[in-house]
């Protein structure tokens, strides 16, 4: 049964079987399971739950404004309700917010699309390469292993006025000045850095596809193109969805690359994280937290929609995981038939 | 999400270990309250001590004060990061940092927030220091930090080319433009540009913009901190530079120049004039082949609209954190570090320009650092950058206005009018 081995997340029930109708609470040993899981939940609550709640609380408070007669800043915090959130969308700050929102979205869509295409291509090459396979894989990993700030400095060097990029192009483009060219510079640097991440995840997926499937396809007369579209892509889909989801979440909170490569306060590459940072760096923690919460909600919504639409196997256990497996089985069987 | 969690954990762990480091053993009095009382170990929070000078000078203090040792805490290389750590320390009211090595532009912010203590003026004699350096350490007429190192802009020029063109170092912008025309006509000057400063969108642009405005007789904010940037003088200053950029006297790539990019260009022989800090002197004079202009340049005070220009004042001051323990020791340490003898050491060991007036007339030092007389003139005419409590917002607004005007996205008139409005909002009491 090659179909079953192709599943990265094998479930206990055979594909197509009716989902067993039992609730977790009634399972024998449920209490023990809850006990065993509780440390994880506790850690999660501490390191993920608490900061989110604390940030939300912070966003409801503001500083007193203005100086007293001898030039001192008034001390103390006061409760301002949702005023920081209203301020995010209003007036000049609102323009800046929507610009950052558009930048974040644009950078995310373009970089993730490019990285996915390049990553899959890299994975296919790495999968095929027989001689020097280990070398190629290690080589591809280098950009991913370099810290983002370092790669940003590296690319800043390439993109400076008399840098390598301009030497290759033979003209003087001022990449790091405010404008569309800065966006291009960030996209290039980000793609270079993170395409290998997608490549490696997809490669892991490729290695799980048994050779027999391809053999059967070849006997049936499927060409390379058909094999790619009808076998490879459907079978790596679950892995690809996870990889893209990770990249989406990562790209939406992009900060260090544009901050270091192009610089702060440049409209063309200012992202939502940079707004939150800017407020906090000027000791306005309340508005900073409000920006962070807005970004958090945006990321959560994108993740939710993405998982719902594409049914990532992230939530396998009940529901989504099982829904995809019969379809996967039919595709593979269809290819063999 | 997972990466985010890891980072949060790592940050948490670092923060914990740092606070753990901060509370050392020993008999210490608790901070807070007025007055400089209590003796015992202290710390000095500073930027990276790349040359090791600071550690050596602090070592002197430690050997003569075994019971009141100072520990040097090196923060990041980046000034923004240093400021962020110091603010964080103050917001937590942590006694971890006793003495702060403050960039003088942060003085107003730190004093206004009561993060640093007012210093007793009696301990710091007015006559010892160059006047502007004392101003840079004061907020609303009160001294909040001890002037330690100073910095002023200098006009570096290619003395070899100026001699060939029979020209004197310029003292006005118009003269500089004329000299450029003569020099650029020389066959040796092919492919060179006239002038550059620091025009990338960062703190350096605020410095350069303030110099444009003040060298033309204008000001960014007045003595009380009210914005005054929308004036005919400021407009003349800004217009000269936007026009120079448009006409190519300033090279197009200059809007990507921070100090280092500009220095590279000057050392490659691409610029006739360069507005730069004193640190470029020894690097551009290096004989190891890294500089094509070694021995072929000199310095002068900055030029202005109708006469000598006005430099932005740079430099670092030492302040005592309001939340420190052992403040009597801290104050003694500050006096020790800013003493004339230690400033001399600091200049000889680390090329850090002093704030003490006497050192600029010391023959021995002038032989070693020939730029000292020019630097003295530059500092004496220098004006601190706008002293605004919300300095972070003010400098961002200034950079935005200057950058867009240089790029030609808006006219200088529009730029100044918009900046005036923004600064009024930022400084609103």
UniProtKB/TrEMBL annotation, chain A:
<comment type="similarity">
    <text>Belongs to the binding-protein-dependent transport system permease family.</text>
</comment>
<dbReference type="InterPro" id="IPR035906">
    <property type="entry name" value="MetI-like_sf"/>
</dbReference>
<feature type="region of interest" description="Disordered">
    <location>
        <begin position="1"/>
        <end position="25"/>
    </location>
</feature>
<keyword id="KW-0812">Transmembrane</keyword>
<feature type="domain" description="ABC transmembrane type-1">
    <location>
        <begin position="101"/>
        <end position="306"/>
    </location>
</feature>
<feature type="transmembrane region" description="Helical">
    <location>
        <begin position="289"/>
        <end position="310"/>
    </location>
</feature>
<dbReference type="GO" id="GO:0005886">
    <property type="term" value="C:plasma membrane"/>
</dbReference>
<dbReference type="InterPro" id="IPR000515">
    <property type="entry name" value="MetI-like"/>
</dbReference>
<protein>
    <submittedName>
        <fullName>Multiple sugar transport system permease protein</fullName>
    </submittedName>
</protein>
<keyword id="KW-0472">Membrane</keyword>
<keyword id="KW-1133">Transmembrane helix</keyword>
<keyword id="KW-0813">Transport</keyword>
<feature type="compositionally biased region" description="Pro residues">
    <location>
        <begin position="11"/>
        <end position="22"/>
    </location>
</feature>
<feature type="transmembrane region" description="Helical">
    <location>
        <begin position="32"/>
        <end position="53"/>
    </location>
</feature>
<dbReference type="InterPro" id="IPR052730">
    <property type="entry name" value="Sugar_ABC_transporter"/>
</dbReference>
<feature type="transmembrane region" description="Helical">
    <location>
        <begin position="228"/>
        <end position="249"/>
    </location>
</feature>
<dbReference type="GO" id="GO:0055085">
    <property type="term" value="P:transmembrane transport"/>
</dbReference>
<feature type="transmembrane region" description="Helical">
    <location>
        <begin position="106"/>
        <end position="126"/>
    </location>
</feature>
<feature type="transmembrane region" description="Helical">
    <location>
        <begin position="138"/>
        <end position="158"/>
    </location>
</feature>
<dbReference type="Pfam" id="PF00528">
    <property type="entry name" value="BPD_transp_1"/>
</dbReference>
<keyword id="KW-0762">Sugar transport</keyword>
UniProtKB/TrEMBL annotation, chain B:
<keyword id="KW-0732">Signal</keyword>
<keyword id="KW-0813">Transport</keyword>
<dbReference type="InterPro" id="IPR006059">
    <property type="entry name" value="SBP"/>
</dbReference>
<dbReference type="Pfam" id="PF13416">
    <property type="entry name" value="SBP_bac_8"/>
</dbReference>
<comment type="similarity">
    <text>Belongs to the bacterial solute-binding protein 1 family.</text>
</comment>
<feature type="signal peptide">
    <location>
        <begin position="1"/>
        <end position="22"/>
    </location>
</feature>
<keyword id="KW-0762">Sugar transport</keyword>
<dbReference type="InterPro" id="IPR050490">
    <property type="entry name" value="Bact_solute-bd_prot1"/>
</dbReference>
<protein>
    <submittedName>
        <fullName>Multiple sugar transport system substrate-binding protein</fullName>
    </submittedName>
</protein>
């Amino acid at each position: 049964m090659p179909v079953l081995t192709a599943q990265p997340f094998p479930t206990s029930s055979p594909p197509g079987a009716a989902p067993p109708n039992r609730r977790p609470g009634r399972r024998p040993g449920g209490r023990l399971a809850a006990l065993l899981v509780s440390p994880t939940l506790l850690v999660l609550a501490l390191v993920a739950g608490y900061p989110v709640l604390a940030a939300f609380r912070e966003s409801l408070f503001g500083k007193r404004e203005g100086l007293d007669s001898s030039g001192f800043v008034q001390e103390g915090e006061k409760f301002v309700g949702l005023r920081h959130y209203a301020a995010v969308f209003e007036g000049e700050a609102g323009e800046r917010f929507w610009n950052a929102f558009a930048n974040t979205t644009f950078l995310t869509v373009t970089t993730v699309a490019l990285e996915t295409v390049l990553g899959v291509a890299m994975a296919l090459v790495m999968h095929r390469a027989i001689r020097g396979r280990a070398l190629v894989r290690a080589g591809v990993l280098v950009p991913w292993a370099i810290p983002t700030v370092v790669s940003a400095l590296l690319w800043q060097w390439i993109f400076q006025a008399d840098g390598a990029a301009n030497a290759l192009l033979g003209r003087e483009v001022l990449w790091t000045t405010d404008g569309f060219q800065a966006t291009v510079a960030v996209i290039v640097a980000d793609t270079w850095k993170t395409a290998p991440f997608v490549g490696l995840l997809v490669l892991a997926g490729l290695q799980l596809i048994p050779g027999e499937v391809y053999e059967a396809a070849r006997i049936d007369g499927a060409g390379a193109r058909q094999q790619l579209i009808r076998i490879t892509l459907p079978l790596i889909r679950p892995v690809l969805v996870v990889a893209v989801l990770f990249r989406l979440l990562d790209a939406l909170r992009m900060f260090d690359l544009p901050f270091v490569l192009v610089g702060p306060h440049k409209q063309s590459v200012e992202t939502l994280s940079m707004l939150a940072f800017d407020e906090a760096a000027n000791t306005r923690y309340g508005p900073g937290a409000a920006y962070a919460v807005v970004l958090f909600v945006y990321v959560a919504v994108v993740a939710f929609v993405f998982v719902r639409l594409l049914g990532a196997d992230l939530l396998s256990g009940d529901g989504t995981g099982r829904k995809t497996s019969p379809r996967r089985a039919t595709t593979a069987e269809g290819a063999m038939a | 999400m997972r990466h985010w969690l890891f980072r949060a954990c790592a940050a948490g762990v670092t923060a914990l270990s740092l606070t753990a480091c901060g509370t050392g053993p020993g008999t210490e009095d608790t901070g807070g309250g007025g007055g400089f009382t209590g003796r015992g170990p202290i710390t000095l929070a500073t930027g990276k001590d790349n040359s090791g000078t600071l550690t050596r000078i602090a070592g002197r203090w430690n050997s003569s004060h075994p019971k009141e040792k100072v520990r040097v805490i090196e923060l990041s290389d980046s000034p923004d990061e240093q400021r962020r750590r110091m603010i964080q320390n103050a917001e937590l009211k942590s006694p971890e940092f006793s003495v702060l090595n403050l960039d003088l532009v942060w003085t107003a912010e730190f004093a206004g927030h009561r993060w640093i203590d007012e210093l007793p003026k009696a301990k710091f004699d007015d006559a010892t220091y160059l006047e502007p350096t004392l101003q840079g350490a004061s907020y609303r007429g009160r001294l909040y930090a001890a002037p330690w190192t100073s910095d002023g802009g200098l006009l570096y020029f290619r003395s070899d080319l100026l001699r060939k063109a029979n020209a004197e170092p310029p003292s006005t912008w118009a003269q500089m433009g004329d000299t450029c025309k003569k020099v650029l006509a020389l066959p040796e000057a092919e492919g060179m540009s006239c002038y550059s400063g620091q025009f990338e969108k960062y703190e350096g642009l605020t410095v350069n913009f303030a110099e444009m405005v003040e060298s033309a007789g204008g000001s960014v904010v007045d003595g009380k901190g009210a914005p005054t940037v929308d004036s005919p003088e400021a407009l003349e200053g800004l217009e000269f530079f936007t026009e120079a950029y448009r006409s190519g006297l300033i090279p197009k790539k200059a809007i990507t120049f921070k100090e280092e990019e500009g220095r590279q260009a000057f050392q490659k022989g691409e610029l006739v004039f360069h507005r730069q800090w004193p640190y470029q002197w020894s690097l551009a004079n290096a004989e190891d082949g890294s500089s094509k202009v070694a021995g072929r340049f000199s310095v002068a005070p900055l030029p202005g609209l109708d006469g000598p220009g006005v430099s932005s004042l740079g430099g670092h001051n030492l302040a005592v954190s309001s939340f420190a323990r052992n403040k009597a020791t801290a104050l003694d340490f500050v006096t020790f570090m800013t003493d004339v003898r230690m400033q001399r050491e600091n200049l000889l060991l680390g090329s850090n320009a002093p704030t003490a007036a006497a050192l600029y007339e010391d023959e021995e030092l002038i032989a070693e650092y020939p730029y000292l007389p020019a630097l003295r003139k530059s500092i004496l005419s220098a004006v601190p950058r706008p002293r605004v409590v919300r300095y972070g917002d003010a400098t961002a607004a200034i950079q935005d206005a200057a950058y867009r005007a240089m790029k030609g996205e808006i006219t200088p008139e529009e730029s100044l009018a918009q900046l005036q409005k923004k600064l009024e909002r930022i400084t609103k009491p």
